[in-house]
Each structure stands twice: as C-alpha cells, then as structure tokens.
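Appendix B. One record, verbatim.
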Amino acid sequence: MGSYRGSLDISVDTHPIHGCVWGVEHNEKDRNLKAASPSADEDAPLVKRCLAGDTAAFEVLVERHQKRMYTIALRMLDDAADAADIVQEAFLAAYRSLNGFRFEARFATWLTSIVMNASRNRLKQRETRLRREAGSLNAPVDCGGVEEPACGCVGADMRLERKEVEEGVQRCIAGLEDDQREVLILRDIHDYSYEEIGAMLKLPDGTVKSRLFRARLSLKDCLRRLLGDNL
C-alpha cells in the first residue's frame, strides 16, 4: 500500500441534536432497523482498492467521511482546532492500520472508533495540562457583570437566537461526563445503532442504553437551566 499524505477541507455542521433530545424514544425502532449491516458497507470496495495500493481510493474515503468525523470530534472536544487535528491524525492512523481492517464492521464504524479514541486521549492531555495550571484557574472569571449558565453569564431579559441556542446545546454537551457524551453524540447526533456503538466503545448494549438514558436526562436539565421558557 502506498503512502498517504492527505489534507482535510472541513466545514462543520453546527446543527443541534436532531429531533427532541427527550422525545427520541418513539423512533428508536425505526433507527435501529435502518442501521446498515457490514455486508452493506458501501466503503468496502474502496477499502479493498486501498489495500491493493490505490491511494486515490483513500482520498475518496476521506472526502466521504471527513465532515462527519470532524463533527464527532468537535462535539467531543468543543474546540475547532483540536477537532481538526484529531481528524487528521485519525485518517492517517486509519490508513496506516488499514491492513488490520477485517470487514466485520462498516468502515465508518471502525473509523469513528479511531476518532473517539483519539478524542479521549486529547481530553486526557487537556486534563493533565489543566491540573498543572490549577493555580491560575482558581481566579474568578470576569464576565463583564453579566451572568451566564455555564460560566455564570446571562442577562435576565436575554432572548437566545438560533445561533445562541446551538451554542448552548454544545455547551451542555461539553458539560456531560465523558462516557455519557460519547454515547449521546454517537446515537442522537450521528444515528449509530446500539450494536455499532457497543462495538466502538467495547460496551454491552445495556451499558450503552443506560449511559444514553443518563446523558439525555443530564442534557435536558442543563438545557432547561440554560434556556428556561425558550426550551
């Protein structure tokens, strides 16, 4: 297999969670039914061409999946630069380890697991850095005299426009526990099946469902605190 030195051209879809976070249960069955099986993986022919040495085929895979992978990383990390770095690293890692792809899962599922693992590692690096800088973080945040939910900064009469609502959703997602954020992003934003999520995160279905349930409750509570009557 030849060498790959690709670059990403990414624009993020900043949509909030599709549908209603606390009203998604009604279509769970439909979403499970439409989940693709490994045998229906439309990427498989391209992966086989890559394994045969066709680097152009991998470029097609990058173009096909880069925006979705970027959105996943952005939701996990809440930082555009970090997300772009992670996705670049993930595609390079995927290319280098493509010989280990067994076609037992969809390529997109396998690639997503790489992005999730890389995002987790970046979060751990962040936590380590923040612990080292803990002294400076103890200083109060200057919000200019305005109070808002995540940092203590929203005026009582402020009406959030659509962009502000989307930012609020992202803020609440970023505030979830890591294990809850992972399943929420994969299930409610990117529509992966429970089986696929379990394979990515190496978790049984029951654990995936319980984490998702707690994540939805936490997100709902955060959004209520943030948006109030605008919810």
